[in-house]
Every structure is written in C-alpha cells, then in structure tokens.
Automatic annotation (TrEMBL), chain A:
PANTHER family: 2-OXOGLUTARATE OXIDOREDUCTASE SUBUNIT KORA, PYRUVATE-FLAVODOXIN OXIDOREDUCTASE-RELATED. It comes from Brevifollis gellanilyticus. Residues 17-180 form the Pyruvate/ketoisovalerate oxidoreductase catalytic domain. Pfam families: PFOR_II, POR, POR_N. InterPro entries: 2-oxoacid/accept_OxRdtase_asu, PFOR_II, Pyruvate:ferred/Flavod_OxRd, Pyrv/ketoisovalerate_OxRed_cat, Pyrv_Fd/Flavodoxin_OxRdtase_N, Pyrv_flavodox_OxRed_cen, THDP-binding, Transketo_C/PFOR_II. This is 2-oxoglutarate ferredoxin oxidoreductase subunit alpha. Gene3D superfamilies: 3.40.50.920, 3.40.50.970, Pyruvate-ferredoxin oxidoreductase, PFOR, domain III. Residues 474-571 form the Pyruvate:ferredoxin oxidoreductase core domain. Residues 214-447 form the Pyruvate flavodoxin/ferredoxin oxidoreductase pyrimidine binding domain. One of its GO terms (biological process) is response to oxidative stress. It comes from the Bacteria.
UniProtKB/TrEMBL annotation, chain B:
It comes from Brevifollis gellanilyticus. Residues 71-218 form the Thiamine pyrophosphate enzyme TPP-binding domain. GO terms for biological process: cellular respiration; small molecule metabolic process. SUPFAM superfamilies: Thiamin diphosphate-binding fold (THDP-binding). The keyword Oxidoreductase applies. This is Thiamine pyrophosphate enzyme TPP-binding domain-containing protein. CDD domains: TPP_OGFOR. GO terms for molecular function: oxidoreductase activity, acting on the aldehyde or oxo group of donors, iron-sulfur protein as acceptor; thiamine pyrophosphate binding. Keywords: Oxidoreductase.
Length: 583, 312
C-alpha cells in the first residue's frame, strides 16, 4: 500500500452525466479531511450535451494548481477515452466504462481497468433508473480505491439528496455502495497521508460563491445585474441571500439598467454592486465613466471569459484588463483589483468595498472563469475580524457642504440628508465644487487632477507584493488573477532545475503599487504570465501596462489564449525560452 | 371592461410614503435653485412652476425630495430645484431612480425628462419600470423634437415633420405614449399640457399620491425648433383643450383608455388609466419580511457564519 501526497483525478464524460456533481463531492470531502484541493472543469456552452471534464487535484500539502497530467482518468465514453488518455501520466490508471469504451491504447505503462459503470449501476439501482446514478457508482469506486472516508461521503450525499424524494437518496446510496464494493481487480489501493490543516475550520467552495459571501461581509445589501455566463451565479446567490440581510438584488432588463440601478443605490447612500462578464462590462462603460466623473462609490465585478464578442463563454481568458482600466470615454480613473484564488475572492470583495468608499469611485474586480467555478479548500474567514456593518450616513450637513471639494475627498450627502444650505447636485457634467455645471477650462483641469490624484494616492499606499522563491536571479515571473498557484508551482519546478527564479503576483492591477520596479531590480529578465493575446507589439495586456509605466525592455510576455488555464509546463517552457534569450 | 389579469384587489397602502410635514414650510423661494437655462418661451418653465406649486401644497420634508434626470433640455430640471438631485446619463434616469426608490423607501423620487430620453434611448427602461410598478413619479416633457441637439426627429415627431435628420419630412410612425404605457403595465397614466398650469398641478398631485409607477406626459412646446406644435390644443391659439370626463371614462378600464389614446390630435387630457397593483417595492419588502421572520433575532454576522458552516 502506497501513501499518496497528491493525486489528480480526471473525470471525462458528457456534461449531463453529473461528473461535476461527483467532482464537487470529492472536493468538498477534501475540505473536510484537512486535505487541500483544487478543481478544474470544462463545460460546453450548450445547456445539455457535449463533452465535459472535471478534474480534481487532491493533496495532503498545498495544492497550487489543478494538475497538468492526471494520475487517474475515469472515461465514460470512447470519445472521452480518446481525448484524454494522452493526459494520463506514465504508469497512471484509467478506469473506463467497459460497456462503452472498446478500443484501448496500451501505452506508457498505463493500467487499464474496465468496469461496467452503466450496467452495474442499472443492476444495483434497478427499476427504471436507466444509467442515472452511474456518476455516484464511480464516486463509490473512487472512495474504495483512494480509501477516502466513506462515512463523510455518505454524509455529503445525504445533505445533497436528502431534501428530494426519499427514493432519490436510497438509489444514490445503492449506486454508491455498489461502486464501493465493486472488485476493481489487481491494483494497489491508495491512501492519502494525513492532511496538514488539522486545527483549522476548513471550508471548500467555488470562487463565485465565495465572492458573494465577501460582498455580504463587505456590507453590500443592494445592487442589480443581468444574467451572463460566468457571472450569473454571483447574482443568483445575492438575489437569494440578500433578503436574509434586509437587502434587495434586482434582475435588471439589461446591462445598462443594471449598472444604472446600482449607481442609483450608491447615490442613495448604500454600498452597491453590479457585475457581468466581458460583453456586459462593455455595455456598462458609459455609466462607469459617469461614476468616475460623479465620484460614485461602486463595486463592479467582471468574471472574464473568452472574447471578443460572444467568444468562448465557458472558457477562461484574461483579456479584459485594458477594458477594465481604460474601456470608457474620457479620462475616468477607477480602481481595478484581481483575486488570486478562490479564498481571495472573499478578501478582495472586502477590499473593493473599503476602497470604493474611501476613494468615492468605482472599483472593478477582475475575476475569471477558472476562479468562478473551481473548488478550493481554505480556512474559514474569521468574521470577528472581517465583517463590515452596512452604513447609511444621513447626518446633517452644514451650510458649507460641498459635494466636490477640491481640497478633500468627496463624501456625498445622500437623499434624506438635511442640508443647512443649498442642496447638492450629483452630475456627470464637469462641475464646480458645489456640483454646478461648469465649462471653465481651469476647473476641468483641477477636477481632472482631483480624480486622478485619488489613484496616485492609493498607489503610494499599496504594499509591494512579496517575491516567492529567489529574491534575485535569472527571471522574475509576474502574474495576476487565477494564474497564482500555477506560477508558484512553476517557480518550484524551475528552481529544482537549478534556475534562480522568483515570482510576484499583482492583486492591485490599477493603480499598481508605486515603485514596482524595485521588484525586478535584482533579476536579469521579467516575464509577465497572463491569459491573453500578445497582440501586435508582442506583449500581453498587463505586460503592456508595466512596460508603459517603467519602460524597461527586460519585461517580456508569456501569453496564451486556448481557453484553458496555464499548464505548469507551458510556464516552465516559456520561462526557459526567455532565460535563454530566444523568446 | 376591466382586464381580467389586473389584480386591483390588493392595494398596498403599506408602501405609500407616510411622511410627517416639513419642519420649515417649503416655499417656491426655498425650492428655487439655479436660473433655468431654457430658451425664453419654452414650455418647461411652466412645468417647473407647476412642480413648485405641488410641492408647496404637499409639504414633504425638504430633505426627502429627490429629483432625477437623464439628458436633454428638460433633463436639466434637477439643477433648478433646490432639493437632492442627480443628473445622470442619456436614457437611464428611470433605472437610476429605480435603484433609489427600491433602496430608500423613505424618500420621494421624481424623474424628469423628454421624449428622446424617455421613448427612444431609454424606451426599454420605460417598459420595465412600468411592468415592475416601481414607486416613483415620472414627468415626460414631450416637445416632439430633439431640442438640445438642435432639431432632429424625435420618436414623437409626427409624420411629415421637417428636421435636420428628415429634411423632406419624417417618415417613421411616431410612438403613441399613452398606448405604449398601457401595454407596459404602468399603473397611473396621464396626459397634460404646459399651457394649462392648473390642470398640470392637479395631475401632478394625483400622480405623486399614486402608490406605484405614475407617468405624466406633459406637452411642452419647443419654441426654437417646433414652434406651434401644440396650437391645436391651445385655446388662445384657436385649439381645443378637452379634459377627460371621469364620469364617462372609467380610469380602471384599459380598453377604454386605449380608445382614448387613439383619438386624433389633439386628443384628450387628464388621467387615462389608474389602478392599484402591488409595487415591486412592496413585494420585495414582503419577501424580506417573510425571510427575516423565519430567522428570528439572529445577528447578520451570525447568519453568514452559519452559511460558512454548511461549506465545511
């Protein structure tokens, strides 16, 4: 018997087979057994049908990436087998449905184990179940193979299916037990080393759910949005949860109405959030310029997906960075943040709320499709430290109240506030300090300075990111968003090969922390790792920003846009090329 | 005949704003802000004057009044009111006002704009604010022309109207605001005229007191770019101003309202339609109340902690 520290399990089938469901159960199980976990999934953008995979990386130590190759492949169909057998590591294991997969490639020492998932499930459950439940059968089988905690799995199943008809849970348990008891033949049964997170409250969830929880903890009680993949589940969660907290989340008729309603709630004195994916963010742009001009505190979430246009709605890309920073008319400073992993979706939402109010301007959070759906386990946030009570400041304002003072931060007086003088006007026209329209050129320059200097001030207060790995040497990797774990794992591999490599991850995309060039002073080369196109000039979007700010020719790009997250070997190969100087 | 789908039984007085009178008497003098930028002779001056009069009559607390507008000549309205005000982008005043109304049940929300803002670039929002029955009052100053951008065709310009974008005369059928509002589910629909100040004041007052989405189309002449547009409804210019006789017209009858709306120009003025239907404000609050009743006194932070427990 072999003790495992890590295992990558890839489930390959069709989107309606329930593989996300059992993958999710494996992931939740990890969160409960002190193991670490990261999942990865592809889904077709059709409602039902089409090949789909769900990959679960379980580990006893820190899991930084969803896994390039899989140790175990579970193939439900011949097409699943054909597409994914090449992703199985040498000497790995392939479980396949022996009623579906008939042509096997015996190569690279891969152990093939045929199990009649479909017929064995039908036999176990009986009746008219057909092949429904074969995913649960496979879950039972994997539990036996990896010696996972059977009682805990049963508990999760009970919670998941117990609310439905009694027979549903009974059938699920029948399928599970059949899979657990199925003799898989002559293979070693694995078990995991004990996890490293013994004393912590661990939770496991996906990024969109965690983002919604973060927004609630940040004090958000109002907002509006329009459904779009992969943003929708955040608005669904807020719509369902906010009434419990006395709030309202409105489904608007379109993206323009959504951002406008949210600005309305913000003008009314609340911390409010809207969100979308790339195409929807484009539609919100005019109103976002308004929010910069009128100095409205606002949170806007963009869960990025493959673009342009309808693009690849269920694939990942990080190609909205320039849109987030510059995608409006006029000079309209706004803050752009990006969470680094699922856990950070919680903390970035809190930070966005704090910054929106402190600087009275829009804050865009750039999440992405990978973060939105993948499941990770992490320490439960301590709400005694991370909780902001919603506030509505309707305190009286004096006769000298100015909505747009030149010598102080804007603090709007929402409707309902008594003003001992002239009432303020909030406006998108250039204005004087009282909010009167002003065509005065000098006033426009002063107000432009004021709006820009908020971000200059913030950039000076932001801490430089820490460097992971070598603090000086051959190459510094810089990345943002969901590439965080993969970049760290790449540093581990490159250092194991003898390279002197470090990595810095940017959560504050705009403004960037001042003095960012101090990070790479001790490195020969810099490579910015991001999921967007190198474009006409050969640099990705964040690389363009950093090059524009620091004009340093040693900054280069590692980019790709194949709709998938970075594999470790892609970053490693790209880094080696840049270090050799032939990139 | 009333529409069988209309639920007129469950009026929701609970959402009607019950606000104590202002501490300091609100007068036109107090309510006046910047001098209007409108052209001499513009109908909008009269609309502003009528709105001052209504507020003087209603005496809402000064700080609870909020004026919202989009873009256009008439949308400059908030600058001329010494109240909380917001001047937003073209066409989106209604969704912005929706955000204010739903999140702040303690304030009175008034939206002002023109025909381009309301029926063209913001047309979709009008449909949805109406069907959702958002608690607010919307005054559309309709002049049948784009004035701020100097004489282009508007969605209410009549066929044949010569503008810079239709030099040989408009060819597109204009919107019939009353019919569109009826079809979208607005619960208070009225039509008035800037030259009829008393009728305007009375109509505004009824609209404001309506618990739901109330819209008043107010014909307001643009003397620069469409002079004489409303002469046929201006008695001193030889026209007729006929007010709807509510002894004859049942304001709950949507089919009768459609027929009224079909009358040729100048048509009739007054309340076309008025029914009680629960506002979105009330329905959302009902959901909140029912949800929170089940939760008891659990502090909000504890609610989130319990949510995390389910994710362990």
């Amino acid at each position: 018997m072999k003790a495992l520290r890590n295992a990558v399990i890839r489930l390959a089938g069709n989107s309606q087979d329930g593989i996300q469901s059992i993958g999710g159960i494996l992931a939740r199980l990890a969160g409960r057994t002190q193991q670490d976990v990261m999942t990865y999934m592809t889904i077709p953008s059709t409602i039902s049908g089409g090949p789909s995979i769900f990959q679960v990386h379980l580990g006893s130590g820190e899991v930084l990436h969803p896994g390039d190759d899989s140790d175990v492949l579970v193939a439900f169909y011949q097409h699943s087998y054909d597409s994914h057998i090449s992703a199985v590591a040498d000497g790995g294991i392939c479980f396949y449905d022996s009623g579906e997969v008939t042509e096997l490639k015996h190569e690279r020492g891969i152990h093939h184990i045929g199990v009649p998932f479909t017929s064995a499930t039908v036999e176990a459950v009986g009746g008219s179940a057909r092949d429904r439940g074969k995913n649960i059968f496979v879950l039972g089988m994997l539990c036996a193979v990896f010696r996972l905690d059977k009682d805990k799995v049963a508990g999760i199943l009970a919670r998941q299916f117990g609310k439905k008809d009694e027979s549903v849970l009974r059938n699920a348990m029948l399928a599970f037990d059949a899979g657990f008891a199925y003799p898989v033949g002559d293979i070693t049964t694995f078990h995991f080393e004990e996890g490293e997170h013994k004393d912590e409250h661990r939770i496991s969830s996906d990024g969109n759910t965690v983002m919604a929880m973060g927004l609630i903890a940040a004090g958000v009680r109002y907002g509006s949005a329009y459904p779009i993949t992969p943003w929708s589940s955040i608005m669904e969660t807020l719509r369902t949860e906010l009434p419990r907290y006395g709030g309202i989340y409105v489904q608007a008729e379109d993206e323009l109405a959504a951002v406008s309603m949210t600005i309305g709630a913000a003008f009314a004195g609340h911390l409010a959030v809207t969100g979308s994916a790339g195409p929807g963010l484009s539609l919100k742009m005019e109103a976002l310029s308004y929010a910069s001009m009128a100095e409205i505190p606002l949170i806007v979430i963009n869960v990025q997906r493959g673009g342009p246009s309808t693009g690849m709605p269920t694939s990942i890309e990080q190609s909205d960075l320039m849109q987030a920073i510059y995608g409006s008319h006029g000079d309209c400073p706004r803050i752009v943040l990006a969470p680094q992993d699922v856990e950070d979706c919680f903390y970035i939402a809190l930070e966005a709320g704090r910054l929106a109010r402190e600087y009275s301007c829009p804050v865009i959070i750039l999440s992405d499709q990978a973060l939105s759906s993948r499941i990770e386990a992490f320490t439960e946030p301590d709400l005694t430290k991370h909780w902001i009570e919603p506030t509505l400041d309707l305190s009286d304002r004096g006769a000298d109240f100015k909505p747009y003072p030149l010598d102080a931060m804007t603090r709007h007086a929402p409707p309902g506030t008594k003003i001992n003088g002239k009432y303020p006007h909030v406006t998108g026209l250039e204005h004087d300090e009282w909010g009167h329209p002003s065509g005065n050129a000098k006033m426009h320059q002063k107000m432009t300075d004021k709006r820009r200097n908020k971000l200059v001030d913030l950039s000076k207060k932001l801490p430089l990111p820490e460097i992971y790995g070598d603090q000086e040497g051959d190459l510094l990797l810089i990345s943002w968003g969901s590439n965080y774990g993969q970049m760290k794992e790449s540093v581990n591999r490159l250092r194991a090969e003898g390279h002197k490599v470090g990595a810095a991850h940017l959560r504050h995309i705009h403004p960037m922390p001042a003095g960012l060039d101090r990070l790479w002073a001790g490195f020969k080369k810099v490579a910015v790792v991001e999921l967007n196109d190198v474009g006409v000039y050969g640099y990705g979007q964040l690389a363009m920003m950093i090059r524009a700010a620091y004009a340093d020719p040693k900054i280069q790009s590692i980019c790709k846009t194949d709709g998938l997250t970075f594999r470790i070997r892609e970053i490693v190969t790209g880094s080696e090329k840049i270090m050799r100087g032939d990139a | 005949m009333s529409s069988p789908t209309l639920d007129t039984s469950s009026a929701t007085p609970a959402t009607a704003l019950v606000t104590p009178p202002a501490e300091e008497k609100l007068t036109k003098k107090i309510l006046t802000a910047d001098h209007p930028t409108w052209c001499p002779g513009c109908g909008d001056f009269a609309v502003l004057a009528a709105f001052y009069k209504v507020l003087e009559k209603l005496q809402y607390p000064h700080e609870k009044i909020v004026c919202v507008a989009g873009i256009g000549c008439s949308s400059r309205f908030p600058y001329f009111m010494n109240t909380h005000g917001i001047h937003f982008i073209h066409g989106r005043a209604l969704p912005l006002a929706t955000g204010v109304s739903l999140s702040r049940p303690d304030v009175h929300v008034f939206v002002f704009g023109g025909d381009g803002d309301g029926f063209s670039i913001g047309g979709n929002h009008l449909n949805h604010a109406a069907r959702k029955n958002i608690k607010l009052t919307y005054v559309i100053m309709d002049n049948y022309v784009y004035g701020l951008t100097k004489k282009q065709t508007s969605p209410t310009s009549p066929i044949g109207f010569k503008s810079k974008t239709d030099p040989t005369g408009s060819i597109d059928r204009p919107i019939n605001p009353m019919k569109q509002l009826l079809a979208s589910g607005a619960t208070f629909i009225a039509r008035t005229h800037a030259a009829q100040v008393k009728h305007m004041v009375d109509t505004f007052e009824r609209a404001i007191k309506h618990d739901g989405f109330s819209v008043v189309e107010c014909l307001s002449e643009c003397v620069m770019f469409y002079e004489g547009s409303f002469d046929d409804s201006t008695p001193r210019k030889g026209g007729t101003y006929e007010i709807i006789d509510e002894a004859q017209h049942d304001v709950k009858d949507d089919v009768a309202a459609f027929q009224l709306a079909d009358l040729p120009s100048p048509g009739k003025f007054g309340v076309f339609y008025e029914v009680q239907r629960p506002t979105k404000n009330a329905l959302e609050q009902k959901w909140i109340d029912e949800t929170q009743a089940k939760l008891g006194d659990t502090p909000q932070r504890e609610l989130l902690r319990k949510r995390f427990e389910t994710m362990r």
